[in-house]
UniProtKB/TrEMBL annotation:
Keyword Transmembrane: yes
Cellular compartments annotated: Membrane
UniProt record similarity statement: Belongs to the SAT4 family.
Keywords, in A-Z order: Membrane, Transmembrane, Transmembrane helix
Topology versus the membrane: Multi-pass membrane protein
Protein name, entry field: Rhodopsin domain-containing protein
GO cellular component: membrane
Length: 353
């Protein structure tokens, strides 16, 4: 490459990755962005699921002393949870667009969007696997709690959803990897040769299926819960625990909205960041929802420990007697209401039968 071509390429690379709208100019030094807000959201939904998974693992390993497959799958989902970075594309130089599309950006220390933290491209690819792991864990938990030895419609509905999700998200995983030929073209705007499929349409379609699947999973156990031989207050409490994932559904629906905007806009960096911002609560809240059935047993155990360390021996004995009576009443209630309710109540207390 001669000097003239080299200078022309350098000039191109220093220019904006997208022509700014009429009346606006590119700002490479201090562009308007929502990076701080995005990082706050990321921090919150890093801490919440981490605490929830820790409580669930402590409950299963130290209190119940029984770890099941759904616990392992949920831990895998938490470890694979990924995220990404935020500004208008006309405020990004062409040479830095590759950095944005391939790596996740922290708050830039230089105008060139330096300080890459995690692979954004890898995060986008792993998204399908993380969502698959979360939904599989929740469905396996449903089977443990609500199914009986008879293996009725609910059991097979859960298994059908598990396998359908496996096919759907597995396909999305490979489609994300091989969306362009050569693969590098997916994040490098300087690759001229090759082809890419219309990932905008794919993202919208897959997000729509994802949202529908979320709502189906939330609604799936509700008929069983409300047919249990329990008072309405207890039914409402259990229903609320298993409905908590509705918040993740709302986040996924908002993410779908931004995927539609992304498919219709050339401002890739901005709408990818908006979409990603709602991915944090979507994944984080789904993980928390999967941990909620273990939390009552954990809180009950911690409460008993605190009380026993502060009161006299005689009062501890009274508290122990009262707890024994309550557990006996629970067992009688379980016998009266059948095996499905017994499984539910045991799991709600953190025990797995």
């Amino acid at each position: 490459m001669d000097t003239a071509d080299s200078m022309a390429l350098q000039t191109l690379l220093e220019g904006p990755a997208l022509k700014p709208p009429l009346g606006m100019t590119s700002n490479f030094i201090h562009p308007p962005n929502f990076m701080k807000a995005m990082l706050i959201v990321e921090l919150i939904f890093f801490l919440l699921p981490t605490v929830a998974v820790s409580i669930r693992l402590y409950t299963k390993t130290r209190i119940i002393r029984k770890v099941t497959l759904d616990d392992c799958v949920l831990v895998a989902a938490r470890l694979g949870d990924q995220a990404a970075g935020a500004r208008h594309q006309w405020d990004v130089r062409i040479k830095d667009l590759r950095t944005f599309l391939y790596v996740r950006i922290s708050i830039p220390k230089t105008p060139e969007l330096a300080n890459p933290i995690k692979d954004f491209r890898i995060g986008a690819i792993l998204y399908s696997l993380v969502v698959l792991a979360i939904k599989t864990s929740i469905l396996l938990q449903f089977i443990t709690i609500f199914s009986t030895a008879k293996r009725g419609k609910f059991f097979w509905a859960c298994h059908a959803l598990i396998w359908l999700n496996l096919v759907f998200y597995g396909s999305g995983f490979f489609l994300e990897i091989f969306s362009c030929q050569p693969i590098r073209k997916a994040w490098d705007p300087l690759v001229e040769n090759g082809t890419c499929i219309d990932m905008g349409s794919v993202l919208v379609a897959s997000a729509a299926v994802n949202v529908a699947s979320d709502f189906i999973i939330v609604l799936l156990p509700q008929p069983i819960i409300w047919r249990l031989h329990l008072d309405n207050r207890k039914k409402l409490e259990i229903s609320a625990v298993f409905s908590a994932a509705i918040l993740a559904c709302v986040s996924a629906a908002i993410g779908l909205y931004y995927r539609v905007l992304l498919a219709e806009s050339a401002d890739t960096t901005w709408y990818i960041s908006m979409m990603t911002t709602y991915t944090f609560p979507e994944l984080g809240l789904a993980i928390v929802a999967g941990c909620l059935p273990s939390i009552p047993k954990f809180l009950k155990t911690i409460k008993n420990i605190n009380v026993s360390s502060q009161i006299a021996t005689s009062l501890r004995g009274q508290a122990s007697s009262r707890n024994n009576r309550e557990e006996a009443e629970d067992r009688i209630s379980m016998v009266r209401t059948g095996s499905n309710q017994k499984a539910l109540l045991d799991s709600f207390d953190g025990r797995v039968v």
